[in-house]
Amino acid sequence: EKAMKIYELLNNMGDIHGMTALGTFQIEGLGCEQNLKDGTDIIKKAAELGYSQALYELGVLYYNGNAEPYIIEDNIDAFHYFECAASKNHISGMYMVADMLITGEGCVKDYPRALPLLLASGNLGHRTARATLLDILNNEKEILNTIELELVEE
């Protein structure tokens, strides 16, 4: 509850960090009664201001549908917001873009674009990105062959 009061104060001051935290707390019902509408509105506002964490959180909401009916699960929109977060060097945003590029969720599969994102997010400390990249290098011949073919064609 103490954290909620701090985040409410920061939100009222227009602080994008506080806004995003408050929105997340409201969506999750942490320290307050769950309020999906207000939580999503606040996160959308922080995302509109270009805050990378808010863009990522919005991507997560579209990806998992945990804020329905205010944000409907949609992998295309999720990919868009993850891309926006990744463009601001958000490490989890970079990982999610890479993961979706590998699986083709919400986008066209694009292995050559995915691997540098995995490497970048792994270098910034994202453990799952590191593990995924290592798994691809050790086990995913299809992905590596696709990349080799694209390099030869260029």
Short description:
The chain is mostly helical and 154 residues long. It is 74% helix and 0% strand.
Which percent range fits the helix content? Answer: over 70%
Euclidean distance between termini CA atoms: 57 Å
| Shape verdict | elongated
User: Uncertain runs with pLDDT below 50, 5 residues or more?
Assistant: none
Counted by DSSP, the helix tally is 9
Which sequence of SSEs, written as H and E, runs from N to C?
HHHHHHHHH
**What share of residues are in beta strands?**
under 5%
Strand segment count: 0
Mean of residue pLDDT?
92
Task: Tell me what you see in this structure.
By secondary structure, this protein is mostly helical. It has nine helices and no strands. The protein is elongated.
Topology:
Elements: H1 2-12, H2 16-28, H3 36-48, H4 52-64, H5 75-86, H6 91-103, H7 111-123, H8 127-139, H9 141-153
Helix pairs in contact: 1-2, 2-3, 3-4, 4-5, 5-6, 6-7, 7-8
Q: What keyword list fits this structure?
A:
elongated, about 150 residues, 9 helices
